[in-house]
Amino acid sequence: AVRGHAEIDDDAVSNASSDYHEPLGAKEQMEHRYAQMMKWISQNRVLFDFVAYFFFLLVFTVVVMEANPGEDLIEQNRAIKSAVAEQEFWFNASHIRKDFYDIDAIGDFWNWLTPFANVLLSNSFPDEPGFFYRYFRILGLIRMRQVRVQKDSCIVPDELSMYIKDCYAPFSKKSMDSTPYGPKNPVSQLPIWKWYSEKEMMEGSYLGRTGISYPGSGFNITLPMDYGGTLEELHFLKENNWVDLQTRVVFIDFIVYNANVRLITLIKVAIEFPASSGCRPYLLLRTSQIDRLVQSEMSSTAMLAETILLVLTSVYILHEVQNFRRLGWRYWDDTWVYMEIINYLLFMAAFIMRFQPFYSVYQYGFPPRPDEFINYERPMWAITQWKNIMSLNAVITWMRLFKYLRSVPFMQLLIGTVALAMGQLVPFLLIFIIVVCGFTLANLLAFGGELAPFRNYEFTLYTLYRSLLGADYFDDMYEVNRLLGPLLYVLWTLIGFFLLLNMFVAILNDAIDEVKNTIPKVSLFGSMKEVIGKMHARIRAKYETFVEDEDDVHLNNEDLERLPAFNHASKQDKVADPLEVMKKEQAEKLRDPALYYDERPFSGMVDEAKARQSLLDCHSDQERLSALENRLESLLGGMKKLRPEPVANLKRELSSFANPYGHSSLRKSM
Are 120 and 83 in contact (CB under 8 A)? Predict the structure, then answer.
């Protein structure tokens, strides 16, 4: 027989005790919190993506700013240029004075070397030995290197052979000379100036101002670090024609460090002697902070920021790989994907360039001994390329912020205009390229031999682009060619400026007008107000739901005894929702925290009350019995967080609920 309400079922209490479990462990709690966090992220995906990317953008900006020493870099480069390139020398003992950029012959080169050595090595007050300009310390030795071409490396026509005996071709790999030359060694009777490969020189190629790429190999010597010895060495080189007609370029390399501002500068002096005669001097400075080259000198802030940037970039790349595997070819439907891929590829290249200097320093050692020359061209080149890549990447990284702001109305106007105009801009760009190529070749042929802005195809292209922005070369073009100068200038102005440029503006205007009709007119302040209002409504809804859950789940034994009353009510007698009645009653009572092992809501009780109400909707006793068995089994599996006594009471009440149907199997299961 089924026991009554007031009886206490010892078996039920023992069964309830057996269903009792310990509170969740640390691992289960972490899994529960992780699940809640992922649920929140999925519900607030747009906001989470924006906040996450904004944090990534801040870290990226910190890394870039840490790599920029500011005005100290400009001041150090200016001082080095003054010491190396702005020292004047006499031109053939006359009253004319020149500096580094005025060198146009081999004689000028040797005359310039004297004040150059005087500034670097004279040790005049207040400079100490090894210092120049007070604070710049030369690390190691100074190296001079030259690249040569073979004698008779070009062909002289037979008709001119009576005038020209020897011919020296422009530099190329085919014409490069590696034969030793110079005075002979008294012991070995071999020329003392030998050729060394790129590997032996630890040098890379160099693209000269004349457009020729010079290899890292060549003939080199090192200068002593005392002023008198250097002057003797330079005199010996000049007297024995170390630079002659076969010389195509001379490089002078050394490295200096300023301990006051922790800046290191690699100095490369390049003087080209092209086959067309004359000279093309150039001064290359690669200045960087010491922590860009030596890892042990990195600050904790820079190391932390770069580590976070590396981790976040890796996470974003893995996220894109997962999206591609999940979406397949539909992954490419989003146009932002292409910008993101370029962005991540540039980041990968930048990280490679960032770690390359550390490997080179580990391989070569730092600093060099006072009596040796170590070429740090490759690591300093990698540092420069890191800056170049990150400068381009800065534009793309900040432009990607529009992706997360595209839901804002005033941002939709910009993004929508570009997207809509792209279909017309592509054919327009093709037309523009055709016109520009024609005018570039025309101006190159007409003025390339006379005007420096048109000296090659690349500079001619830049000149035409600058003319669209307002630069004027009409006077120079007219002086060179009085027929083609005005003609090409007028045609380019009419077609390039008045026609093509205004067509470009018209395409954008049409796109803006069309996009405006599809976007609501909301100001920036209105957009911010709308976003804040939505966030406030969402937080308020979550708070109200939390309060309702708290009211629903804090049940005591007295409330559990009241539950069967809902079940004995018939459909005709139902006036109010039982769940709502229980809510109102519980709002008037104090909570009983002793009912639970923790303060988390037990939503299973509320679900069970809803299930009992749904039992009343069954059409037959058999349906009600079957549904009751299923719900009773699920209920007992979810009561692990209640103490044993309330569980026993609930079992007893459920037994009373099953009594009217006289189903013995239910009583046995209790």
Answer: yes
Instruction: Cite the beta strand spans of 290-411 per DSSP E.
Output: none
| Residue 509 structure tokens | 């205007």
The reported pLDDT for the residue numbered 519 is 67
pLDDT band of residue 389 (cuts 50, 70, 90) is very high
Please give the helix or strand (H or E) that residue 223 lies within, else none.
strand 218-223
Residue 309 and residue 315: Cα distance in Å, rounded? Answer: 10
Radius of gyration in angstroms for the set of CA atoms belonging to the chain, rounded to a whole number: 42
What secondary structure does DSSP assign to 277-324, as a single string?
SS-EEEEEEEEEEGGGT-GGG--HHHHHHHHHHHHHHHHHHHHHHHHH
DSSP 190: S
Give Cα 245 distance to the centre of its chain: 48
b vs e for 447-486, b when ≥16 Cβ sit within 10 Å of the residue's Cβ? bbeebebbbeeebbbebbeebeeeeebeeebeebeeebbe
Longest dimension (CA), the chain: 136
β-bridge mates for residue 272, sequence order: 249, 280
Token digits for 78? 């200016």
CA 664 to chain CA centroid, Å, is 71
| CB distance 351 to 412 below 8 Å | no
Residue located via tokens 């030995």 = 129
Q: Is 114 exposed, middle or buried (0-12, 13-18, 19+ CB in 10 A)?
A: middle
Interatomic CA distance for residues 605 and 132, integer angstroms: 85
**Kind and range of the H or E run holding 222:** strand 218-223
Residues 249, 208: contact at Cβ < 8 Å? yes
**Distance of alpha carbon 492 from alpha carbon 460, whole angstroms:** 13
Could you tell me the two tokens for 194? 């030998």
- 74-85 burial string, b = 16+ CB within 10 Å, else e? eebbebbeebbb
Q: How high does pLDDT run on average in the chain?
A: 78
Q: For residue range 472-504, list pLDDT tens digits in order.
A: 888 888 888 888 889 999 999 888 888 888 888
d(Cα 407, Cα 401) in Å, to the nearest integer?
12
528: CB partners within 8 A, 6+ apart: none
**How do residues 45-84 score in pLDDT, each as one tens digit?**
777 788 889 999 999 999 998 888 888 889 999 999 998 9
* Cα 170 from chain centroid (whole Å): 41
Least confident of 21-30, 136-145, 190-199: 21-30
Predicted confidence band at 192 (pLDDT cuts at 50, 70, 90)?
Answer: very high
- Alpha-carbon distance 539 to 545, whole Å? 10
Task: Between 589 and 442, name the one with better pLDDT.
Answer: 442
Average pLDDT on 526-530 reads 66
For 336, residues 6+ apart whose C-beta sits below 8 A from its C-beta are 400, 403
pLDDT digits 0-9 by tens, 209-248: 888 999 999 999 999 888 889 999 999 999 999 999 999 9
